[in-house]
Amino acid sequence: MALAELASRLNCAEYKNWVKAGHSLLLLRAALQRFAGEQVQAFHRELVARSSARLSPSGLRCSGRCTPRGKQAYMPRGKADICGPDKCDASALLNLFNFCDHFSNIDQKKVREVIKCRNELMHSSDMKVSSSWLKEFGNHVQNLLTEFQHIPEAQMARTRIEKLLSSDWAVHVPGGDQLDGLEGEMNRSQISEIEAELIKERLHEISLLVEEQGMMSEEDLNRIQIVKDFLNGNHDLQRSLQAEMQNLEDLVQKLYGQKQSTKETQEVNDEETDEDCHLEKRKRTI
Q1: CA distance 238 to 227
Q2: Contact of 75 with 82, CB cutoff 8 Å
Q3: 262: which residues sit within 8 A by CB, 6+ positions away?
């Protein structure tokens, strides 16, 4: 059953494009995490040195053991508690490059183009993107990676992403569980893990958006229903995302309860206002 469900998903070209783009972002993140971590530590040491220099006249010294939390100011919503680049997703890492002056030597236009693509990918209503979109996305990712030619992991990622985006990923149920086009690099279990990670990130995006709004719009409900319908038809993914879906359901119920409470309070206030107006009218008549 799991293989048949995977075959059905990956034989849909637009969904397969969505997963390929998401996987490319995971490879991009993995390739740049070490570099980002080293640069953040260097930035921290620089800040410590500046602080020590300012405090030295009074005989005070920084021990150098303080935590470099300044980078958290550059994290997107929902990422402020991240402790380092090794814990960042692609969105957080790209935002670090985009907003922190320490990375100003990187072409910011290239960073923003990939951020835009990433947001379009996560906000896709049906988790599908066209082949033309995928081609443009691939160009933007490769352009960004040219900024890191001195980093071996980045150059390896360029090759892997190019190969990934041009692969077929066709699945033929009678012939076993190997995916065409990746020369044995990935099996169905690995693909399913990537799918689950991407859908988990999408659910997190929806939750953050709803929490920021403090209300549940019709569009939000449609987004949630699309994911629910998708998971109901793909039990292998549904099992691995039960906790995330339950958290989202709890949030929906909480906001719905708040909406009902607000509505009831408003109705009571309206009734009291109507009653006051009625009494005032009777007084005038008398």
Answers
A1: 10
A2: yes
A3: none
Cα distance between the two ends of the chain: 79
Question: What is the secondary structure of 106-132 as a DSSP string?
Answer: S-HHHHHHHHHHHHHHHT-TTS---HH
200's CB contacts (< 8 A; 6+ apart) are: 241, 244
CB atoms within 10 A of CB 32: 26
Whole-structure pTM value? 0.77
Residue 210 CA neighbour count, 13 Å, CB half: 25
How do residues 215-273 score in pLDDT, each as one tens digit?
777 888 888 889 999 999 899 899 989 998 888 888 888 877 766 666 656 655 656 56
Q: What contacts 106, CB < 8 A, 6 or more positions away?
A: 97, 147
Q: Report the distance separating Cα 5 and Cα 106, nearest Å.
A: 42
